[in-house]
Design brief:
The protein is of the alpha+beta class and 195 residues long. 32% of the residues lie in helices and 9% in strands.
Amino acid sequence: MDEIRLLAGPSVRMRAFVDTAPVLEKCLAARAGLGWIGKNSLLLHPQFGSWLVLGEIITDLELSCDSPLADGCGKCTRCLEKCPTAALVQPCCLDARRCLSYLTLESKKPIPAEFAGRMNQFILGCDLCQDACPYNQNPRLPERSAFQPCRQALNLDELLSLDETAFQETFAGSSLLHAGLTRLQQSARLVRHNP
């Protein structure tokens, strides 16, 4: 934002958001020409796929607009077919109450028993719809290491043995802290009973 102030002047008004306010970032990004809303309900970019972190700067600057991109999904339905809980109820429409990513990351309620057996080995999140997407098969990876994809296997026994202090120390600086120990341990107990 400092660079914007250098270019636009100190009186420019702006605020930045990255999952910190109720901003419809996917829709805004699609309208801005950064991609289109895919059948997996995520923003899809032709080079980066849906492996994106969206951030916004809301400003009073008058800016020129890019044109929205055309829908690139065509007849593909791989993401809908891959969803283990049928959370993608139709193209571009996600029922979060069925989505393993929502249920393991955001929901404060216990994971419904009907979905416990469909968690496979996912303690946190799922992303099978993203794995199935052709645009995610060979995405152009970001240069900055902080934005590189990272999947980490967690040891169930170690996770279940942690107390809150050990959890905070073990995962300091990790996004796993967002989910919290209680949610992770609930998911770990469910996953332990899956084949």
